[in-house]
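Friendly challenge for the regulars: who can give me the structure tokens for this chain first? No prize, just bragging rights.
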Amino acid sequence: MVLLVLGHAGFVEVAGDNKTASQLRWSWSDQQKCRDDFKSIKDLSEKKRKSYLEKDPTGVRILKHQSLVCVLSGNQIISLASVHRVEALLAQKPPVIVLQLEGEASIAKTLLQLQSSDTIRLIQIDTAIFAFEPVLKALQNTQFIPLSEELLFWKDGNLIGGASVTATQVTRPLAINPSVNLQRLLGTSSSIVLDKSQAASLLAGLMQRLSLIQGPPGTGKSFIGALLAKAIHNHTEQKILVVCYMNHALDQFLEDLMKIGILETNMIRLGSRANAQLKRASSVHCNNLEDAMDRFIASKMAFKDVLTYVEMEDSKYFDAFHGGKAVSSEELISRWSGGSNAGQFKDELNICNSILEEIRKSYNECQDQLTCKFGEATVATLMGKRIIACTTTGAAKLAKDIRAAKPDILLILESHVLTAMGENTSQMILISDNKQLRPKVNNYKLAVEKGDGFELNRSLFERLVLMGFPHQTLTAQHRMRPEISAFIRKLTYPDLTNAAKTQGRDDIRGIQNNIFFIDHTHPEDNDPRISDPGDGASSKQNTYEVKMVWKIVHYLAQQGYGTDKLVVFTPYLGQLSTLRDVLKRDNDPVLNDLNSHNLIRAGLMSPTDNTSKKCIRLATIDNYQGEESDIVIASLTRSNESNDIGFMNSPERLNVLISRARNGFILIGNSQTFVNARRGKELWGKFFELIKQGGYMYKGFPIKCEHHPDRTVLMKSASEFDTLCPDGGCTEIW
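First reply, four minutes later:
Bragging rights claimed.
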């Protein structure tokens, strides 16, 4: 690796359709004079330029740290490099950029071309390549795919191979009696009796080389995963690699493993979330360094004394401070322009390239040695654990270390699997649901929904199901009250049943129904600041719905529902951003990792945003899959005369939308836009027919005074909340 500093570089921003890329140019000859400057800061002082680049949304988008750039000479591609973003250098006039190059061939080729080309261009891609790099590199290095007979070549009628090691102490009694109490078999603290579908799923997971377990919403995918891990952990010597797509899902699953009796000392969690202790140690060292510097400044020690100390300790550094003849900042360039040599620096310049090359090689060798040593320590730690847990990105990033630890079983609670597999993988358990949202791809042209055959967002789980590979399906849901689960049973899962604990729950206080749809005709508007993948150049927002949601949250708080009992979500990032801004008046909106990343990337949120107010959870529908809340408030956003609902025509997205709530489900939107949609009207027509049949359709927010139950009213606008239920009840005296 080498850092290449391109000084005195001029830039030209590209106009046109590709708004996410910037094209940068500078002249290598002609005394490296700038052709241009950043248009947005060319008239600012250097101090203001730096501040703008650090804080302004547009500035953040220019030469984003670790973004990929293509280095070109004319129209010829020289190499690819990553931006090492230093605002202080970018703010100079002209700007200075730093590129990170990797690979001996790429470095040599780039340095050679820079010397021989008059004009160099950079084209920046506004994509966080570093987030995908581990996966791409892992795929490049993949030469062998375990379980290929099942994953690649399985055909209907083929036998499914058996697991190489089986927890027979569990499988034999369970096969004889699916209702056997697992407490004694697994050593759990409480009684565990499975239903028929759970028992079949557990047996398949323990006995097959490859097992697929489909878990509709609320059916306990994590619970079955924890039982599988517990049985393997207790009754075999095999090592398990647990992989989830998102950090919060992984953390939750590890908590489930600890609750079921697996000791924390037998598990290791890899990834950024596991580094809290290291961060604390780093903070301590940083504070100590700052304290030492403060003490030095306070001592008012003479520089002469400092130089004497440096001369005694290391003469090389003393020479750097003390040796040589003082020169002006223009010394070298004036000698060059006059045709003279470099004077006292001529020897240094003559050997500069060779010294730089030697330093670079030595640095790379040192880095390789450090990586190897750290890797040895990591592998030694992993070898001592029975369960290794990480995200899919972590599995790719740490693939070498994980494979060295030789995990036998891959337990996946998501659909991203290939980079997590190693040569020692002898068994795979996939737990997912092909009827919920597919993995994300940012380019809609490559998605299943586009219909062009690329299907990059079709998961391995879904591919196997479509091939007819046998799979088990969990059938009893434990999340939703029956009125809510009725929607997904009638639309998607006809065999779904309700567990006993979903029955007889209290009604939501202060409203006329536990489920209702607030129907309106107020139009949407575009949010040009951001876009949603696969749904147009600009995101959508609806001001009427934002104001109503704000008042509904406030009203529910008056009924005693804390913000920890609520979640607000919407399909669109534009609406999410607007909801966040409005709800901040009373609450601190908590966004999950993916939503926060998207809003920060769009410049609509600062990475340091925080308040001391009560937290309310906000999310897009896509990023709330796998989660649940007591009360869900959903803003559908779309309301237009053209009946365009964009990516809301997806049955998988509707499935996730209507299956997150445990006790109360509040929707707000324009039903006519959805039932008359050009795409998806059949799906939404069935949904709204169920809404009407249940008596859940209202033209406003249907409140009921808890102190005067006969007093009911529909709130058709946000302003009516202040006049008709100022204290969360009614206008009568309590």
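The chain is about 40% helix and 15% strand. The two ends are 73 Å apart (CA to CA). Your move, everyone else.
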